[in-house]
Amino acid sequence: MQTPTIWNRLARLGARRSSAGVAICLCAIASSAPCAWAVGENSVWISDYDSPGSDGEGSPVEPFLDVFDIDRTTNEGEQVQFQDLQSRQIDATQPTALPSTAQRANAQLLSGLGGLSGAIAGLDPAGYDIASRSEAVLRATTDTGDLLGTSPTVLNLGVQRRNPIVNDPRVRGSRVGSLAASGSYWVPARIDLDTAISKIDSRVIDEVVVIPGPYSALYGPGFEIIDVQLAAAPRFGEVFETRGASSVDYKTNGEQWYGRQSVWGGDEVWGFRGSYGHRTGNDYRSGDGTLIPSSYKSRDVDLAAGTQLTVNSALDFNYLRQDQTDVELAGQAFDIDWLVMDGYDVRYVLENQAQYDRLEIESWYNRTRFEGDAQRPSKRRQFPFYDFIQFVGVTDVDSLSTGYTAKFHWDGLCDERLIAGTDLRFVNQELNEISSGRLGFFAWENANSPIPRSYSANPGLFVQYNTDSQSDTRLTTGARVDGVPMDITADPASLESLGIIGRPASWILGSSEFYQAEFLGAGFATLERSLGDNWTSGVSAGYAERSPNQTERYAVEPFMFLIQNGLNTVTGAPGIDKERRLQVDFRLSKTEPRYRLQANVYYAWVNDHITFEAMSVVPSIQDVQQVNLKYVNTDLATLWGTEARGEYDWTPSLTPFATLRYVEGDDRTRDGTFATRQATAAVPSEQVDGLPRGFFSGLGGGATEPLPGILPLETWFGLRWHEAATEPNWGLELAMRVVEEQDRVAASLRESTTPGFTVYDLRGYWRPRERLMLVGGIENFTDKQYREHLDYRSLSGGESVFRPGISLYAGTEWTY
């Protein structure tokens, strides 16, 4: 008898779905066998006609008494309301149980260190990719960005690795700083140093969902979404229980240590979880033995508590604190001296109401503060230009994100769902960059090149609907509207003398229209259809708009190394237009007992795409060491690419696999209709019509040019050897990563080409006991000297950034 499914269906349907016809529909959905139901005075009986213990004639012989409370009223017929007596229990063998989608992925993860079949089977119809905490343990990852860049279940993004604990994800060619992480809406405090998710350790998450296009209405306006869900407090049975876990990891290259102690407990009504993590690391060695500045110290505290307020309502709370010190960022303008982040999240759920089936209200408050400097000897070796101009610089940042999301759910008779609600995202940021220096006869002292204190508010309304997930054809569609006002709130007197030229912010930015407000709209539809013979196809189409962020509007020439040649200043544009994207995706997959295949192809047209213009170079066109960048719209940019993966169970213990990822981006209107003249002490910045973009820098570029910061073609080939069991206790993975040369570069921004490379990794795990996991591996075991396309390379004889050479790692997690 399939009672759990029946109970779940009945509990979700509530008061309005208690007629005999509905019950028959429920039984047909919940079980492949016919079933019967009956309502007594205070009980519900359900039985499968054909289940063991049934007489086969339709008389229920296995009653389940007092499963639901019944609130019965009469108004020309009975209305019966079913209410769940007990909250859903969470399996606490790990700190939290994973949602069903991640469970499907992780079932295969344990069978082969990230098995592909689980990832394919667990994909959302819109082609979302999912990574979970289990993968973080198996692969000994650091921050959440490292998890996304390492997980084989995530194929639609690459990563810029600034430090072993600071990793910036780039979804399908997205630009630095254009991504925010939903859930608690994490944003980077300073887009060139920290990232949206570098402050979240990969061991404290529940799951991360990557949405590679405008294919959801639930997470705010944007083109790609990374939805980070922190692990919630667990629930147990009637008896109070406590559990604990201890983890230790060590990586030889850079002497990187990590330890985490966790404890959690509770009963069926309430639960708690707390953990403390500590990471340290030194400079790592590249393939030729060069030390790359990358030391760090990081500590985090993760707390969660939750309670079942009533049989239909629950309240959960999360608190996350991150303290980082002495974080060296190779290839960036500044290192982080100290960073403190506090994040709070409260979630309230109310179910089985007469007006709706479920209400979710989530509110958050995140604040990040840090200070950095450019005086370390390792930084000066990387950038000899700093000594040439006698540069002394410090930076301090204060960033706040707060808001809420309220979602109403209505569930249909056959698993349809309608979600509607409202949300608000409010960001308040300030960046100061104080510097002194000299260039020839021109000198400056204690000049501030800031992003002045400013705010961005984003109230929105959304609706999303999906059809029966069990049918052969599944449709998901949604839309949202948003308003985004933005303005500088700093004291006007503080804006009068900025930058190394000591002029007003409006002089340098080229506009005094600081207040900007935009109306944004978005809509999408995703259709997935079963084609028979285990083939599934999908198509998605979406349109969305994105407002510029505060850096893109208000940056007053801070040093921000946002493209790989580094040594860039960045200037905002208060009047820059919102981006508008139309995107289509096509997917095809096949799942057989012995093999799994999937392929995605997408194309996007972006109007008013935000990119960079080179306004000037320093010291001269023959010896360029610094490029001064300006945010600017290009009328049309296009992005297209493909992703594919497959695996084959050669034997019950051997599984070859392969993946592929490729993105191509083009600026179709690079020349534009004007060129921007950089501000000097004598004249303000201005747009000069009739000149090609970048004219004043002296750097040439074609009418059409590749977009900057696009990662090249990447493929993985590998073999997994594992125990021939549903949940194997051991496994090994040998993988070869092949990255092609990237010769499609933005010449007008002096972006450099990058040669291709191949690296080899060996990973493994062993569970000698049910609650003990041992992991280990050798990364880049041929000690290859290589660099990624987004790594900084010196233009003036300084030290460039290369990736780590050979590195052995080992780790253990003991749950008790």
Describe the 3D structure.
- Strand 33 (674-677) and strand 34 form a beta hairpin.
- The relative contact order is 0.11.
- Helix content is 9%, strand content 51%.
- With 816 residues, it is mainly beta.
- It contains ten helices and 40 strands.
- Helix 1 (3-13) packs across helix 2.
- The longest helix has 13 residues, at 100-112.
- The protein has a 22-stranded antiparallel barrel.
- The model is unreliable at 1-125 (pLDDT under 50).
Strand content: over 45%
Shape: globular
What's the alpha carbon Rg, rounded to whole Å? 28 Å
Helical residues, percent? under 10%
List the helices and strands and how they pair.
Layout: H1 3-13, H2 20-30, E1 35-39, E2 44-48, E3 68-74, E4 78-84, H3 100-112, H4 116-121, E5 129-132, H5 133-139, H6 144-150, E6 157-163, E7 166-171, E8 181-182, E9 205-211, E10 225-230, E11 241-251, E12 256-266, E13 270-281, E14 284-285, E15 291-292, E16 296-310, E17 313-327, E18 335-351, E19 358-373, H7 377-382, H8 384-388, E20 392-411, E21 417-439, E22 442-448, E23 451-466, E24 473-488, H9 505-509, E25 516-532, E26 535-546, H10 550-554, E27 556-559, E28 568-571, E29 579-591, E30 595-620, E31 623-648, E32 654-667, E33 674-677, E34 686-689, E35 705-706, E36 714-722, E37 730-739, E38 757-769, E39 772-779, E40 807-815
Parallel strand pairs: 8-10, 28-31
Antiparallel strand pairs: 1-2, 3-4, 5-9, 6-7, 9-10, 11-12, 11-40, 12-13, 13-16, 14-15, 16-17, 17-18, 18-19, 19-20, 20-21, 21-22, 21-23, 23-24, 24-25, 25-26, 26-29, 27-28, 29-30, 30-31, 31-32, 32-35, 32-36, 33-34, 36-37, 37-38, 38-39, 39-40
